[in-house]
Specification:
It contains 2 helices and 8 strands. By secondary structure, the chain is α+β, with helices and mostly antiparallel strands. The relative contact order is 0.26.
Length: about 160
């Protein structure tokens, strides 16, 4: 899924890309630093249905969603991202510049999917592709905002938390 970016952001300056993303893809990227999203408790409580069950600074990814859940529904799956290590959710996350590359982020997401029981021998390649796609989407979103911006998810929109 592609998420819409809401509000004002900065243009990414990725330049020409080189290097290998993962064993599942030939997509290439340049550099060893990129922006990612991490959990934060900053601005928690601005919405009455905020929650943060992810340790501060843990990298986050997209989780699976309920079919008929509303953005402000009880589950929270349409307004949160999930910690890659503890597999719990948060409604607030922050953009950080970090010394990892796309290959590393893809592998982190794949390992998170594996640790949480989503990867089987039958779907290993499919889940690898899912990890690559999520890494691209996370970086695309993060590159749209400034380092340090606190963000929130509202359905398929990602926006600065005001």
């Amino acid at each position: 899924m592609t998420y819409r970016i809401q509000g004002e952001g900065v243009n990414p300056t990725n330049g020409e890309r080189s290097g290998r993303l993962s064993p599942f893809s030939q997509v290439t990227h340049k550099g060893e630093e990129m922006k990612i999203l991490v959990s934060t408790e900053q601005t928690q409580g601005k919405r009455k249905n905020d929650f943060c069950f992810v340790p501060e600074h843990e990298p986050v990814k997209f989780g699976f969603e309920c079919d008929r859940e509303a953005v402000d529904g009880h589950c929270g799956c349409k307004r949160s991202l999930v910690g890659m290590y503890n597999h719990k959710a948060t409604t607030t996350f922050r953009v950080i510049e970090t010394p990892i590359n796309h290959d590393h982020l893809s592998n982190m997401i794949f390992e998170s999917l594996k640790d949480s029981g989503w990867v089987t021998e039958k779907n290993r390649v499919q889940m690898g592709i899912e990890a690559i796609d999520q890494a691209k989407e996370i970086n695309r979103i993060a590159e749209t905002f400034r380092d340090g911006d606190v963000l929130e998810r509202r359905g398929n929109k990602i926006q600065v938390r005001t």
